[in-house]
Amino acid sequence: xxxxxxxxxxxxxxxxxxxxxxxxxxxxxxxxxxxxxxxxxxxxxxxxxxxxxxxxxxxxxxxxxxxxxxxxxxxxxxxxxxxxxxxxxxxxxxxxxxxxxxxxxxxxxxxxxxxxxxxxxxxxxxxxxxxxxxxxxxxxxxxxxxxxxxxxxxxxxxxxxxxxxxxxxxxxxxxxxxxxxxxxxx
Length: 186
Description:
Elements: E1 4-10, E2 19-26, H1 43-55, E3 57-64, H2 66-71, H3 74-88, E4 95-99, E5 111-114, H4 117-120, H5 122-145, H6 151-154, H7 160-169, H8 182-185
Helix pairs in contact: 1-5
């Protein structure tokens, strides 16, 4: 029997925090029609589907830290997070489908990339939801400690309010200092 894992990341474009990746093997009983790309869902829909996916699949999360992002670059850090998520699955997939056109190098795994895979393949869509909701929870928690940056609303992305807060409050240890415009403010 073919065991397919979908993989996607969340947080590549954010100015703060780790990049997350999720690997998801959907149970055959799951209603795949419910699962869509995380970007096409409301926050509440994502959270409901996150719980549904967690109960009806094998899943794992991988992360790459701010230090790893700054040392490698965001692409390499994203691939590292993906590799960690894949390696943490408690069942070895026969095929791994990854959103995008780059994949981590993992010997003994068959890996295929698909551009816009999160819009076409339910297991990749599920991974996009698990990665996004998991990362959003962490960033919201950080936002409670670092008030004034509006991370509970912008999740670290470069919104006007966030950029204004950086100028007013400064750069935190969670900011990616190699990212523009932060690298110009140091």
